[in-house]
What does this fold into?
Amino acid sequence: MNRTLRRAELERVRIKPTSNLLYDLLLRAFGSYHARFDKAANDEALSFIRRALEMDPHYGLAKALGASACGARVFDGYGALRT
It folds into this structure.
């Protein structure tokens, strides 16, 4: 997906959620994760991902984005998540 299209879709979801809550949560996570690269954005993205995984523990795309966000936490020096 090109950047302009992705930004437009993320802005659309921010203003008007989709009818699919899981997809909406994942789009919001993508938006947080890719908008800024700081701890607060990472935490916000992981919050959306956790909510999506609570609804569907087998949601592969949410698991993949969650793994990426957790890896970024360690790489950026924020530390691993504690459960």
